[in-house]
Each structure stands twice: as structure tokens, then as C-alpha cells.
Amino acid sequence: MAVVSLMLFVESLQVTIRAAMKQDEDSHNLLLPLTETILDAVVSKLLVKSIQDVIDDDGSVKDTASPELRRYRDQVQALESRLCQLMDKLIRNADNEASLSEVSIVNGRCCIKITGDKSSSFDGLLLSSGSDAGSMIEPIIAVPLNDELQGARALVVRAELEALSKLTDKILLELDNIQILMQETVTLDKVTARARYSIAYDGTLPDLYLPNIEHGIVNAAKDEPASTTSSAQLTKRPWKLFIPNAYHPLLLQQHQENLRRTKKDVASATAEIRRRRIYGQDIAEEDQLASELDFMKIRVSELERNHPIPVDFMIAEETTVLVITGPNTGGKTISLKTVGLASLMAKIGNWNNEVEILSLF
């Protein structure tokens, strides 16, 4: 069903994009090349229907997979019903009812579990026995039905394998398209994840400064198009690296998650106190909640005050060497990691906050 889910997801994206293009013709151009990737994807509706006809949502083979499978499963159900009726009749007609326990299954064969020292009132085959578990007896009269049931179950398994084999052949014909579809979906998922991260942390699109060393002079690369300005405009900028108020992305993410979680706890505790007051519930528990709420509010204030400290990195265009000195725990490593991560994130399309001009390392 994973293949079906993948194809239905892509088909849903295609429908959404086509609807958006009808409402706004420019939307297609804004989302290039993503829209082309999605619209060009091949979704085999015939294969989707074939899989849905054979495989159920829980992964089992449907009765509709083949007429033979339905017939064999009906046969199994009928035999199981006949065996249950037979076993119930034997238990009811037994002279020593106290020694007869229940109907059990041993290796797929229907039998009767007998406890106690008394023997059974019917002829049967001993399938298993134990001092604690009792004896498992297969009545002689039930042997033909059990044999027939075993045969019917084997036919069901064979019919399921045949249905799955035919379905596999159909999937193999579309295997190349499925693999391409999976790769394109993974690419779209990565782009979506980067976009969500950039939006969540107020990421900005940087001007990528790509230096070429010519005669000892650092100039912007002429072969690579700039993101928002031309290469000629970049050469006029005084900076090769301009990152004001930049945060280490992991520290910023950790801080915002802690703050968001604590604020959520405050809202939940406030709502619980309000609910208890409305319904007049235990005052002692309300006082405890109020105390915990005060502690949470203090925690929120502390998190808001102890915001990660940003760094300012501004390197002039003509600079070729930068030396960073300072005491231990002064922020040297964090600063370097901030710049390095900002450059790496820009390479993969993950925009960082407050980045204006960025070199690629």
C-alpha cells in the first residue's frame, strides 16, 4: 500500500497545482522547477486500482483478489463452522462434562481439551498432553473435516500467492516510474523541510559571494548568477561576508522549542485552573496547580531573558586572513560554527536568519 499512498499523494499534488494555476497563471512560474517536477510525474491509475483490488489497508490479501481465492476462503469458513458445531455437540453429549474443558486448536487442527483424570467419552487421537495443560484429543469423527480444512487452507495460501505474483508482475512493469516518483518525492520533501525551517526561524535569502582569485584581487565569480543581484553589483559591495545579529541555528532552535513548550504548559495549567473553578473541584489541588503555574511563568521569563547571544560577522572584501582571539568560553568556537553552518545551510537551501552577504566555504 506504500506504492498506492505515494501515487495518490503525487496525484493530489498535481490536482492542487493545476487548480492553483487556473486561479493564478503566475503561480506556475513562481514555483518553477518544482511545479514541472510534480506535473511531469507519471502516476499509473491502472496500477493503483490493481493494488487496491488485491491488497487491503492492513496489508492482507482481499477476497476480491481472485474468484478462486474467494471460493477457497468461503470453503474454509464453512468447514470451520461445521467443526465448531461438531465439537460443541460432542461436549454437550459427553457423560463426564466436568472433565471436558474447551475447544482448542493444535497445529491448525480442531480438538477438545480434556482436564482431570477421567477419559473422554468418544474415540480420538491424542495430539498433546501435560500434567497442567491437560490432554488435547482430536475426535475420530472430526479427522476427515480437519483434513479437508487443512487442504482448503493450503488452497487459500496458493491462491493468495498467485494473486500477489500477478500483482508483482504489474508493479515490475512500472518499476522505473515508481523509482523516479520516489526520488522526486524525496526531493520535494527535502525542499519543503528547508522552506518550513527557513520560515519558522525567519530565514533570509543571502547574496552568495563566490570569490575568484585573479592577480591577488578577490572578485565576485562571473560564471555564477547571484540570487538577488548581479555579479557586477556584488563586486561593488564592500563586504565578502556580512552577517549582523546571527544566531547559532541549533542554539536558537533549542531555545525556541523550550520557550514554546513552556508557554504551552502555562496555557494548559491556566485552562485547568479555570475549569476547576467553574466546576468547584478540590481547592487543594487548585492551589498546587497555581503554585506550579507561577513556577512555569518564572521559567518563561527566564527563557525570554536568556535569549541566545547573536554574533556580528563583517569581513571586508579585500580581507584574506581573519584571526579570532579571546578568553576561553568567550564565544570563538560558537562564532566560527555560526558562520560555517550559515554557509553550509545556504548551500543546501536552508536559509539562516539575518544573513545578507555570505561566502561559500
Automatic annotation (TrEMBL):
<dbReference type="GO" id="GO:0005524">
    <property type="term" value="F:ATP binding"/>
</dbReference>
<feature type="coiled-coil region">
    <location>
        <begin position="252"/>
        <end position="306"/>
    </location>
</feature>
<dbReference type="InterPro" id="IPR036187">
    <property type="entry name" value="DNA_mismatch_repair_MutS_sf"/>
</dbReference>
<protein>
    <recommendedName>
        <fullName>DNA mismatch repair proteins mutS family domain-containing protein</fullName>
    </recommendedName>
</protein>
<dbReference type="GO" id="GO:0140664">
    <property type="term" value="F:ATP-dependent DNA damage sensor activity"/>
</dbReference>
<dbReference type="GO" id="GO:0006298">
    <property type="term" value="P:mismatch repair"/>
</dbReference>
<keyword id="KW-0175">Coiled coil</keyword>
<dbReference type="GO" id="GO:0030983">
    <property type="term" value="F:mismatched DNA binding"/>
</dbReference>
<keyword id="KW-0732">Signal</keyword>
<feature type="signal peptide">
    <location>
        <begin position="1"/>
        <end position="19"/>
    </location>
</feature>
<dbReference type="InterPro" id="IPR045076">
    <property type="entry name" value="MutS"/>
</dbReference>
<dbReference type="InterPro" id="IPR027417">
    <property type="entry name" value="P-loop_NTPase"/>
</dbReference>
